[in-house]
Amino acid sequence: MEVKPLKIDLNADLGEGGAQDEALLALVTSANVACGGHAGDHQSMLATVKRAKAYHVNVGAHPSYPDRANFGRQSIDMDAEQLFDSLIQQINALGAICEELGVELHHVKPHGALYNDAAQDPLLGGILIRAIKAIDPDLKLMILAGSPLVSQARLAGLEVIEEAFADRGYLADGTLAPRAQPGALIKDTQGVLAQVTSIVKQQRVKALSGEVVSCRATSLCLHGDNPEALEFARAIRASLER
Q1: What is the three-class DSSP state of 149?
Q2: pLDDT tens for residues 96-118?
Q3: N or C: less crowded end of the chain, CB within 10 Å?
Q4: In sequence order, what are the residues at sequence separation of 6 or more whose Cβ sits closer than 8 angstroms to the Cβ of residue 152?
Q5: How many Cα atoms are found within 13 Å in the side-chain-facing hemisphere of 208?
């Protein structure tokens, strides 16, 4: 049975060296800005936040495991305090730029392997929550819809933005399919739009194995480093407006 569609945010991971960032900022409503862990530096953060301000786009920090060599896409067994310190450093680096430009730092969304790991592992989730609360308890956490970290963060007093993915395949347990798995990356516009429609109108998504998975999200992510990102963003924005 179809349920009432949600009002939904459209976000993109930006400041990662992609050539389409400015064009994407004209289409999205939130930007997750790389802040040095997997990509990004002072100049890229400054440029991205300036553009986001011009387009009235929410700015979020996009910290990761400190692993630029692997673009933050490999899990790292780090000492808890070292990871905490790295997250503080990354989020504060972007926060300082936001303060300089008179822009509110709206949320934190972990990147890559840290996103997937923290969503499921309460120890890593706790480190992330502790870092956010140490900086500003009013910062929102953006994380995978329906994951254990959603309830963990809410119990800790954080406001949570539950996120789904327009261009990624899902497993039957509601997690994202590993990038190396066939079907993990949705590469055609019709496939992306079908997934967006299912998430927004039915609050569910079809897993690669065929199971239907509940997915009640309030934000949709589009990966800015995807070569088709701009085409997808235009199509998604038009579809959501309709």
Answers
A1: helix
A2: 999 999 999 999 999 999 999 99
A3: N
A4: 122, 125, 126, 129
A5: 16
Category of 25 on φ-ψ map: left (φ > 0), alpha (ψ -120 to 50) or beta: alpha
What is the pairing mode between strands 219-223 and 9-14? Answer: parallel
Chain centroid, CA 177 distance in Å = 15
Predicted model pTM: 0.95
**What is the band of 6 on the pLDDT scale with cuts at 50, 70, 90?**
low
Considering only CA atoms, which of 147, 87, 89 is closest in space to residue 117? 147
Question: Which residue has 């789904």 as its token pair?
Answer: 164
Q: Residue 239 CA to chain centroid, in angstroms?
A: 20
Give me the amino acid identity at 134: A
Instruction: Give the angle 36-104-54 at the CA atoms, nearest 5°.
Output: 85
pLDDT at residue 225, as a whole number? 73
CA distances from 208 to 95, 158, 204 (A): 38, 32, 13
Q: Structure tokens of 8?
A: 């939904």
Quickly tell me which residue has 């989730």 as its tokens.
Answer: 125
Q: What is the pLDDT of residue 224?
A: 74
Containing H/E element for 143? strand 140-144
Cα 148 to chain centroid, rounded: 16
